[in-house]
Amino acid sequence: MSLYETAKFKVLKRYQNKIELREYPALYMATTVTKTDNRLSGGFNNVFQYISGYNEQNSKISMTTPVVSTLENGNLKTQFLVPEKYGSTPPKPKGDLVTIETMNQGCYIVIQFSGSWSERHFGKMDARLLEFIEEKGFIIESKRLILRYQPPFIPGFLRKNEIMYKVHQ
Questions:
Q1: How far apart are CA 82 and CA 7, in angstroms?
Q2: Cβ–Cβ contacts within 10 Å for residue 169, how many?
Q3: Residue 13 host element (H or E)
Q4: pTM for this one?
Q5: CA distance 27 to 64
Q6: Dmax of the chain from CA atoms?
Q7: For residue 155, what is the DSSP state?
Q8: β-bridge mates for residue 93, sequence order
């Protein structure tokens, strides 16, 4: 049993090398955009402040997994899943550093792996997944999403990481 609420999904198909086709519902995400850093962790503090009560209801919001990162136009987008109990009305963030966005419902192709949080490592796993996507004829509909499930103090070999893309065939 996990300590944290985790994004729900349905596995549609399992492939070799820890690759899965999943169906996700629409998910609400607390989102911030910062400059990119070498560990892709720059926005963590902004979204952590939001869940720690820096929102219009001054509500403490439970930590969830995964933390989702996306690189966009040289910036880093960092997202926390809003717990399911808030439905479509999550607490509104204070200030302008955090917004609430929706991750679109749909099919996502995912590769799971352990290891360090570096662009080199993520790039290697991304290349494997992109080769698989091309081989199977999927069409990518999103940017690369990096999902991290453990805090940074967990040794790399014990971390659960994923890369995923929204796709269709």
A1: 9
A2: 9
A3: strand 10-14
A4: 0.91
A5: 12
A6: 48
A7: -
A8: 55
Residue 1 has pLDDT above 50, yes or no: no
CA distance 92 to 101: 11
Summarised one tens digit per residue, pLDDT across range 75-85 is 999 999 999 99
Three-state secondary structure call for residue 131 = helix
Rg of the chain over Cα atoms, rounded to whole angstroms, equals: 16
Residue-wise pLDDT tens digits, 45-66: 899 999 999 999 999 999 999 9
- Residue for token pair 């987008």: 77
14 pairs with which residues across the strands?
Answer: 20
Angle at 111 between CA 110 and CA 116, to 5 degrees: 130
3-state secondary structure of 2: coil
Where residue 38 falls among pLDDT bands split at 50, 70, 90?
A: low
